[in-house]
Amino acid sequence: MIQPVSTELNKELQEKIDFKTKPIGSLGTLETIAKQIGSIQNTLSPTLSNPTIIVFAGDHGIVKSQPVSPYPQEVTQQMVFNFLQGGAAINIFCNQNNIDLQIVDAGVNADFDEGTSLVNYKVAKGTSDYSKEPAMTKSQFEEAINRGKSIVTDLHENGSNIVGFGEMGIGNTSSASLLMSYFTNTPIENCVGKGTGLDDNGVNKKGEILRNVYNLHAPNIQCSEDALQHFGGFEIVMMCGAMLQAASLKMTILVDGFIVTSALLAAYHIDNNILDYCIFAHTSGEQGHQKMLDHLKVTPLLNLGMRLGEGSGVAVAFPIIQSSITFLNKMATFKSANVSEAN
């Protein structure tokens, strides 16, 4: 059960913000973020402790039978190796901004050598092909949700109070599109985008395939958990569990692009109090993402045309979040700086 963010200090936080040496409201969104994180932590002097991005990786059975991605499934495994070698965008941006990075094998269709930094929480070697059957069994769904919760519990116990989410999985824009269609009641054709680089014909074909998938499963979906079980990837379900746990532990949640937001969308429909704890990093170039954000009635920090995934938008946006806390804690007030206030 997620508790709503406390409003106990709202007035005092607003006064602390307003009496800094600046015109009222002149730091814009930075002021909004500062107040939100102060409220989450229920303090006038919030901190960002051990910021971490968790990248969940998983494979999708539909890729083996349907042309929903221009890339073969083995790219998931190859990119996980790249993460572990430090060569991906998310590695570079995390290093730049002093963010800890965890890579989690939620369900990659490969075996990885022991002795790496990879967190092995593999549920299975990829989901089932949901063009024929549900993506996962009920027990696999529950395992993925609970493992996501466990990861965040460990992170919190090690002192982190802010966590961002990323993903890797060839075919996961298809799962995200199906979840978006279900949770926002949007026709699937308006949810489907280019993913890893489909052309217009490929996007149209992907839409047709996913329309058939949706129609196959819709009669058996009665709740949010059912939607995740039928349409989700192990990485998406694990993220959903991790997000729910992060909010229950009163951590600040940083949301990346299209696929991560689909997991958040599911978490929101399970417990809508989660939104109080979320900061949305950016608007993805994937066409459905802005519609998801509109459904949630949220405004992201950036729009850089990014659609890479991996949590890259979170890592790039993180310095903005740092700036919000830094000004709140360190900027002088009119009184301390002997600056005259407005009449």
The CATH topology assignment is Rossmann fold
Task: Please give the CATH class.
Answer: Alpha Beta
H/E order of the elements?
Answer: HHEHHEEHEHHHHEHEHH
Summed over residues and divided by their number, the pLDDT gives a mean of 96
> Which structural category fits the helices and strands?
alpha/beta
Q: Strand arrangement, largest sheet?
A: 3-2-1-4-5-6
- Report the portion of residues in β strands: 5-15%
Q: Please give the radius of gyration in angstroms.
A: 20 Å
The biggest beta sheet reads: 6 strands, parallel
Low-confidence regions: none
Distance between the first and last residues' Cα: 46 Å
Broad shape: globular
Superfamily (CATH H level) name: Nicotinate-nucleotide-dimethylbenzimidazole phosphoribosyltransferase (CobT), large domain
Helicity, in percent?
A: 40-55%
**How does CATH name the architecture?**
3-Layer(aba) Sandwich
Integer count of domains: 1
Discrete helix count: 12
The count of strands amounts to: 6
Write the layout of secondary structure elements.
Layout: H1 10-18, H2 29-41, E1 52-58, H3 74-85, H4 89-96, E2 100-107, E3 119-120, H5 138-157, E4 162-168, H6 172-184, H7 200-217, H8 224-231, H9 234-248, E5 252-255, H10 258-270, E6 278-280, H11 289-296, H12 312-330
Parallel strand pairs: 1-2, 1-4, 2-3, 4-5, 5-6
